[in-house]
Automatic annotation (TrEMBL), chains A, B:
This protein's record includes keyword Cell membrane: no
Highest classification ranks of the organism: Bacteria, Pseudomonadati, Pseudomonadota, Alphaproteobacteria, Acetobacterales
Record's keyword terms, sorted: Hydrolase, Manganese, Metal-binding
Organism (species): Roseomonas haemaphysalidis
UniProt domain Peptidase M20 dimerisation: residue ranges: 199-297
Protein name: Zn-dependent hydrolase
Length: 400, 400
């Protein structure tokens, strides 16, 4: 059976870490000189591993296995958040490279802009035909630069965009850091990901009446902030009755207008979201939220409007891919692995729409991610590569 | 007995309204050309009414009654909030002028910057020796201009600052719009103000742990925003048990850091205040707030720190001044007046520290203030002037 060369794998990872190094992490925003340097580095490594390397018009780097199938597809993204960690994305790309180096029939891919400097999953969506030219025309980066200009600056203008021949693949594998503390707390070295949660996002807009905090009695006021607080407190009390075991819900922003100490807020805007892997749970929570808003509108003197910002669908992992990784994990790290869902979005969720897909997590020290301090112990990284390669081999053998 | 010339009073008000006119209101920020024009206008009117007019080094305009006492002091401020109402402040100054025109032995004053474009009650504090040169040196306006530069630009540099001879006065009177809807709702034409509430202001700082909204389970998270919401909901439930009949409490701002939809807030800052006219009620609410914060810190995974931003003292009206205004109101508008506290701060609260003081309110249409749409019916304005002049005369007669 093919085996991962873990020393080589760690060497590749540490080489990549030097491109755009920032403190103990990296700074490689999409299409920046550092990002493009990392993509060229990757193409060299792909060729070294016997793959046919190319880059496409959105920045996807693709390494095609020249031999016979059945084939797998593996990878992740290679750019980073600003001044962020060295493993987020890079790990899945270098892990895919380790699969190729081990002799597996794998195409390796580094998707562009998973981190959303310019758009939402530009590379993975482009590769499956879900990114229109018009969207590329209209996108502007966080720094105000047009996506078209960024592509031109990176020398990508005019290149064709890769369209994956999805029928070519038995499955997609993506290794990634957990970005949470489940594995670390359990003392586990790897996690087999059961799926990627869907995110349902809302904006709650409460309309009251702006007034003087001294002149307006409690009985007269229509305080939009207070209505928002009561509604959020009701959600806090009610959601545990409807959630699943791993549901999360988060209010990330409460903006009171005008936001001064002596003025009763005339308007409140609240960002609220929940995530789960089961559509049924998502629907239950959506219904509960609607009831709570309705209830608030019946009781309160301020009207609350519930606006939907986005509703993704959960991406469930393929059971046979999971079983193969389970077996590889139990063989390499007996009792020190588990299944768990991914609370964050990943390129794998787009691949899962077109082929069996799975992810493999390794622990994040302290759960830190999107920060340069992000890290994982070398032995856990190596264990991840070992399980990834062995699991893929087991899957191909069983599928064979 | 002296009587108000209400036609003349309304004519003065409408003349002043033309200086810095903005829509149906005015724009006369402190020390602006429009503000200085209004101060010069006032000095002319003072001289016309037989007073000795002067302006001092902070912008206070003072009209001294040249005859024998016993004297009263009356007035308010003449600058406006930005693009705000024509009556806020101006009414009290022109009302004081009406007292002088009626022959009452009154010194008229227009305090500078009650509206706080550069500081907090600069004019009234200066006039009673509660404004240090060092504070003037350090103050910077909302637009970034230094107070010293603004004073120089207005031609006030080097002028001495008026120090009121507080022993000269039997009392201080300030007429003002209500800035609420108590009088309007009751169908009353004037209100005799029982005092100016104290404002106790706090900042609640909640410290949690910033984390990924997907990767961090509900059990693991330390959500500073959620702790803030629970605490505010507890205040909402608990404060009605401790408040007085006219207490107000307000949360004007909730800032979650970093404030993004997919990030668990690591920090929350909340501006909270309450107002009451009774020190005992203020102390009861302060104790309740401390208990709630303590309780939160016992239960929650995020620590809340309670910071005091300010605690003013209530300024109670003089009972004899109130009784004189009561009698004048009942004579002029039988059954159409009431006593009520002021929820907003006014220059009178500083005068009340050194002499008997009282305020007289007229209705605000729709309770609107700090907005150019602010207005009061002419007949209510005239009624206010009538009651002010008659009340002052009754007070002096009784004080003999």
């Amino acid at each position: 059976m093919p085996e991962a060369d873990t020393a080589r794998f760690l060497q590749d990872l540490h080489e990549l870490r030097r491109i755009g190094a920032f403190k103990t992490g990296v700074h490689r925003p999409t299409y920046s000189p550092q990002d493009m340097e990392s993509r060229r580095w990757l193409m060299d490594k792909m060729r070294e591993a016997g793959l046919e390397a190319s880059i496409d018009g959105i920045g996807n780097v693709f390494g095609r296995h020249p031999g016979p199938g059945p084939h797998l597809l593996a990878g992740s993204h290679i750019e980073s958040q600003n001044e962020a960690g060295w493993l987020d994305g890079a790990l899945g790309v270098v892990g895919a490279l380790a699969m190729a180096r081990a002799g597996l029939p794998v195409d390796v891919i580094a998707f562009a802009d998973e981190e959303g400097h310019f758009g939402s999953f530009l590379g993975s969506r482009s590769s499956i035909g879900e990114l229109e030219e018009a969207e590329i025309d209209g996108q502007v980066g966080a720094g105000g630069q047009k996506l078209r200009d960024a592509l031109a600056g990176a020398g990508l203008s005019g290149l064709p965009r890769l369209q994956l021949d999805t029928g070519r693949y038995k499955g997609f594998l993506e290794m990634h850091i957990e970005q949470g503390t489940q594995l670390e707390r359990a003392g586990h070295q790897v996690g087999v990901v059961t799926g990627i949660v869907a995110i349902w996002q809302y904006k709650l807009v409460v309309t009251g009446m702006q007034d003087h905090a001294g002149g307006t009695t409690m009985a007269e006021r229509r305080d939009a902030g207070l209505t928002a607080v009561r509604l959020l407190a009701a959600i806090d009390a009610e959601f545990p009755r409807h959630c699943g075991p791993r549901t999360t819900w988060t209010c990330g922003r409460i903006a009171l207008d005008p936001g001064a100490s002596s003025i009763i807020p005339g308007r409140a805007e609240v960002l609220f979201q929940f995530r789960d892997i089961e559509t049924e749970v998502l629907q239950r929570l959506d219904a509960a939220l609607r009831r709570l808003v309705q209830d608030s509108n019946r009781r309160e003197r301020c009207e609350t409007e519930l606006r939907i910002l986005g509703r993704s669908t959960p991406a469930l992992s393929d059971e046979r891919l999971m079983a193969s990784l389970d077996a590889a994990a139990e063989a390499a790290a007996p009792g020190r692995w588990q299944r768990l869902p991914s609370g964050a979005g990943h390129d794998a969720q787009y691949m899962a729409r077109h082929m069996p897909a799975v992810m493999l997590f390794v622990p994040s020290i302290g759960g830190i991610s999107h920060h340069w301090a992000e890290n994982t112990a070398d032995e856990d990284l190596a264990m991840g590569a070992r399980v990834l390669v062995d699991g893929a081999a087991r899957f191909l053998a069983a599928a064979g």
